[in-house]
Amino acid sequence: METLEIFLGAGADVNELGDGEGMGWSPLHECMLHPHSTGFMVTQLLHWGANRRLLGGNGLTPLQMARMVRNYNGVRMMRSYNGEE
């Protein structure tokens, strides 16, 4: 995960909506589609200011996407980050 820290430390925009095959998803949206990538990556993205309420190109937030694909770990992590519900 050192690469992630290098990009974030260099000022990469954690809320940039990439093309994601035309979907316009942020890195946090992408993480929610891949339950195995949660944990460290989600924590780092949130720490660096990833917006959990950012609408992707499909009109969904990362939290909504996590629910849609049944990524319960991702849902739990985003809801509990900094004690927020």
TrEMBL record:
InterPro entries: Ankyrin_rpt-contain_sf. Gene3D superfamilies: Ankyrin repeat-containing domain (1.25.40.20). SUPFAM superfamilies: Ankyrin repeat. This is Uncharacterized protein. It comes from Morchella conica CCBAS932.
